[in-house]
Amino acid sequence: MTDLAGRAGARRPVVSMTAMAQADADAVDLILEQWGRERPDLDCSPMGVIARVTQAQREVYLAQRETFARHGLDAAAFDVLAALRRAGRPYQLTPTALMRTALVTSGAITQRLDRLEEKGLISREPSEDDGRAVLVTLTELGGQALDAALPDHLETERRLLSGLSTDDQQLLAGLLRRLLITLGRTPAAP
Amino acid sequence: MTDLAGRAGARRPVVSMTAMAQADADAVDLILEQWGRERPDLDCSPMGVIARVTQAQREVYLAQRETFARHGLDAAAFDVLAALRRAGRPYQLTPTALMRTALVTSGAITQRLDRLEEKGLISREPSEDDGRAVLVTLTELGGQALDAALPDHLETERRLLSGLSTDDQQLLAGLLRRLLITLGRTPAAP
DNA sequence: GGCATTTACCTTAGCGGTGAGATACTTTGG
DNA sequence: CCAAAGTATCTCACCGCTAAGGTAAATGCC
């Protein structure tokens, strides 16, 4: 486990020259160039970040989908199974907890759980402490499915990031962390 | 903006966060910590970048949706109108060109154009050069809608990025550009 | 020139998510 | 102790996108 405590982005890091000054342009550069021509009165520089976040996420999404499909899963299923797995024994969470980590609505979680239950990857039982609540448990099969997919998933992520040095990856992670923190909704949203 | 101080969940159920000041943790740090406890054999550091890209994109998406809604638009509509606008006079593109910049399927573009045409924001006419092709043109109304939304849109993006200095924003943009470039699909995909 | 291939756009079934709201249980405050 | 407010989950109509496939026009190859 690399030292995640470093907070690379928090102090002002010396700019690694490779980060800028790469002669190559990406799709967003073209968009910015178009706006610069058509609306020179506007400062569109924020798009340079935001649009790239959007495009990067799209690539991530597509790559992950392929990976999950190899294991008979999709992103929604993996999301739930991984949340249960990393919660630790007894691999049990409520739909509400899953809703918060997955950042989807309660209706979406219900449907995800329906599908996962159908496939035998999770089970549902009423909570004994709270008559309203349900306890979702990772089944043996679900744990196996997750454990099979997880290394492949990580390998995909590593491949996606392979264009950046380890230092730059940490730098990027630090910047994004600061972005997320200022966007509110930090650990567990209301 | 940094409210959420008295959260119940973060205080107790955790081990000591390595050397990190607690105030600087985001949701992804918690996830990485969980994986570190449950699967110390795996190097999950790639998630520190990928998961944050995903979460950041989600925040962006939600903020943009609010902004667009104030102007009677949604992200899909804005995407198309903006592509036409920044293409310059005569504000005309084919569905295929729009498909490429929007990164959605042709079916999605058809539907988007149906909706926009219905609202009078674009018009469609058959191309004279190519009997298969269609020319999509931004109408007067469409141009007005876009021009009204664009400054607000940029203001939203600026607000989203307000936690980072201008230098850090550029640094972030540069890192993401390199990421996108190595992910292939750079300017116009085949 | 004629046939196969490619390209451009549209059509449609199906899917997963949202948003609104229903239901049942729990907590709170007089 | 009870009513009101809050919480947990599920239900369902609707929506936009994808994937697969259809039609028509352009292109290429001989």
Which properties best describe this structure?
homodimer, 190 residues, mainly alpha, Arc Repressor Mutant, subunit A, 3-stranded antiparallel β-sheet, elongated, DNA-binding
Quickly give the CATH architecture of the domain at 55-182 in chain A. Answer: Orthogonal Bundle
Largest interface: A-B, 84 and 84 residues
Biggest β-sheet: strands ordered side by side in the sheet of chain A: 1-3-2
Kindly provide the radius of gyration of chain A, computed on alpha-carbon positions and rounded to a whole number of angstroms.
20 Å
CATH superfamily of the domain at 55-182 in chain A: Winged helix-like DNA-binding domain superfamily/Winged helix DNA-binding domain
Oligomeric state of the chains present here? homodimer
Query: Order of helices and strands of chain A, N to C?
Result: HHHEHHEEHH
Distance between the termini of chain A: 31 Å
Structural class of chain A: mainly alpha
What overall form of chain A do the CA principal axes indicate? elongated
Please mark out the parts of chain A with pLDDT under 50 across 5 or more consecutive residues, or reply none: 1-22, 186-190
